[in-house]
Design a protein that fits this description.
Helix content: 25-40%
Oligomer: single chain
Shape: globular
Strand order of the largest sheet: 3-2-1-4-5
Largest sheet: 5 strands, parallel
Number of helices: 8
Strand content: 5-15%
Number of strands: 5
Order of helices and strands: HHHEHEEHEHEHH
Length: about 280
């Protein structure tokens, strides 16, 4: 079912994409994502320019821009790594709440993001951290994400949302940590979209280039309310999607290291912290 809201804005610039393609860790990733979005004929369903205020691809600057119009902005980070940079930028304010679901383990970058890290000063309890272990799968991840965001929404009452959707949580990523698929991330995205708030959606990590393009193209379809065909359309980077040439990503056999008791403990801590939010 297609959404009744105004069509999303799609931010694209040839020079910006060229610069992203030159990054040594993700060569050509930006072009692959754009080419697959285009191959699925999704571009005509989106606007190519913003109105009212600027749309920026940097989370912190984007939030600052949104704050000109909206009193409270919620930042949700579903990347594999803790969203420490955005959290640090707004750790002293109650006008921006940051929520990060991420891997938290000894020696894993950046080493921050325990559930006890809640912000500072006036921003105390406005930072929400959900530390996770390797192997988490779609069902557990979505249930946890929904439970946290339900309470966050009720307590914080945001006027706008910035949502960062890294693809390094996806099965097959070289980080070898979480065991999600685009469908799992898509359910989290849909949960946020059903709030019907102005929402800025950003990419993030993702180091298996073809799977990252698969993931972000699938999520673009979710935003547009469109179900995409399984078969990858013929396009410039078609050969990168072998040997199966389909949009779906199969989970691995990686065991889930997240104990149910620990998940409940984390949820209990988050609920307790949110009681202090006004």
């Amino acid at each position: 079912m297609e959404r009744s809201q105004p069509p999303p804005v799609y931010v694209y610039g040839a020079e910006y994409v060229a610069r992203c393609d030159a990054l040594s860790k993700v060569p050509r990733r930006a072009s692959m994502v754009h080419a697959l979005v285009e191959a699925y004929s999704l571009l005509p369903h989106m606007r190519d320019e913003a109105s009212g205020f600027c749309y920026l691809n940097d989370a912190v600057l984007g939030i600052l821009q949104l704050r000109r119009k909206f009193d409270r902005v919620l930042y949700v980070d579903l990347d594999l790594h803790h969203g420490d940079g955005v959290e640090d930028a707004f750790s002293f304010t109650s006008k921006v709440m940051t929520v990060s679901l991420h891997k938290f383990a000894p020696g894993f970058f950046p080493g921050t993001g325990d559930v006890t890290e809640v912000g500072l000063g006036r921003g105390r309890y406005y930072s929400v951290n959900v530390p996770l272990q390797d192997g988490i799968k779609n069902e557990t991840y979505y249930q946890l994400c929904e439970a946290v965001l339900k309470d966050v929404y009720a307590a914080f009452r945001p006027g706008a949302v910035v949502l960062q959707l890294g693809a390094d949580t996806i099965a097959g990523d070289p980080m070898c940590a979480f065991n999600l698929t685009p469908e799992g991330i898509g359910k989290c995205l849909n949960y946020v979209l059903q709030w019907q708030l102005p929402t800025l959606v950003l990419g993030g990590g993702g180091y298996h280039l073809a799977n990252t393009a698969r993931c972000w193209t699938y999520l673009t379809g979710v935003i547009l309310g469109k179900t995409l065909p399984s078969e990858i359309p013929d396009h410039e980077f078609f050969t990168e999607y072998g040997p199966d040439y389909v949009l779906e990503i199969t989970p691995s056999c990686r065991p889930d290291r997240n104990e149910p008791q620990r998940i409940q403990e984390i949820l209990g801590c988050v609920k307790g912290h949110l009681k202090h939010v006004t």
